[in-house]
Amino acid sequence: MDTIFALSSGMPPAAIAVVRVSGPLAGSALAALAGRLPAPRHAGLADLRDSDGQPLDRALTLWFPGPATATGEDLAEFHLHGGRAVIAAVEAALAAMPGLRRAEAGEFTRRAFLNGRIDLAEAEGLADLLAAETESQRIQALGMASGHVSRAVAVWQDRLLALMAKAEAELNFADEDDVGAYDLSARQLVDGMGALAVDLDRWLARPVAEVIAEGLSVVIAGPPNAGKSTLINALAQRELAIVSPIAGTTRDVIETPLALDGIAMRFSDTAGMRGEGADAIEAIGIDRARAAVMAADILLWLGDPEAVPDHPRHILIAAQADRWRGDTAAEAAARRSDLILSAATGEGMEELHRQIVAMARTLLPREGEAVLRQRQRAALADAREWLTIEAGSREEEDMILLAERLRLAAAALDRITGRAGVEDMLDALFGRFCIGK
Fold first, then answer.
1. pLDDT surpassing 70 at residue 75
2. For 148-206+372-417, CATH number?
3. In sequence order, what are the beta bridge partners of 49?
4. Residues 433/109, Cβ–Cβ less than 8 Å
5. CATH 1.20.120.430 region(s) of the chain?
6. Which end of the chain is more exposed for a tag (fewer CB within 10 A), N or C?
7. Are 219 and 270 in contact (CB under 8 A)?
8. Considering the entire predicted model, what is its pTM?
């Protein structure tokens, strides 16, 4: 296998730059530049020189003999001064060595996976951790990268293996005296499968990880001139949407990412929803607005509370309070809403912030609760399906069919941690990483 190297810290210039080398020639590459190998897992100070003896940098060096390393291979690190010229010179010296080449995107992490240092679920968590921008994203990604999901899968696999062993013993060695400990009926096997399916259901009922990684969808909707564009501008604190007294100004869905209390969200301003008077282009915008409302995690409705679309999570907002204050009929109608707001003056904005965050937290996992990505959920749903036996079916009494269902359930769980049929997915996953990760 080739020995690879890459810059594994941030883009220069910086105070320190870390160049990582992984593979069978990592030790010789370190010794060639530094003149010697430091003690394993102890930092050493060295004057780095290229093959012509020209000085490159005075740097800290680290030597990690495999396989107990991040990649499962021999690993070396150069902690350099973080100037562009220094990094370029060291990389050029490494590239000139036979058997060394620059790493491809995600190749360090891919080698960690292939060498058994991490599994696929942990690699996906690491990818999310690198992309995390909010506190909720960081916490969730760190949990997955630390193996929360993998440990749960390991427990399920152990339970499945125990059931499979008993089924195998019953099928093939039932007449042997020394397998009495494995003796069980088909009914007991079905009960064991059902108990495991219940545990999987609890995980499938949790929110999906993409909700945290991509952000909750918060859609602002209502009739024309209800103050939707003014509200999204106030939330974004910039002129994102055109504000005009002319009905139908907003023709398309305008989206902006925001974070409230560390929760990633995607706020969308939509075309005013009305049944008559819209031209052909505005009608398209209204159709898109309705589609956005249906797909929203949270709906902010700026309009008649009686006309709110059927949505499980909505906040009724009596907007533009600065315009109708003192109007008895308008104030009476506003009392049917969840809050009174004026994006122009700031009235009610803090309360809106609080209500959005409170509703968003009901869609997120509880503190310390791990969740699954869509790919992992699909595999878990497959496993749960194979573990579910229809009451009264012939399978309830057929040990051979039950054993096959157990085997298929185990294969589905294996897909979560990457033990089967993942080559195409690996290319897509590790391509998300930066070159030196």
1. yes
2. 1.20.120.430
3. 55
4. yes
5. 148-206+372-417
6. N
7. yes
8. 0.70
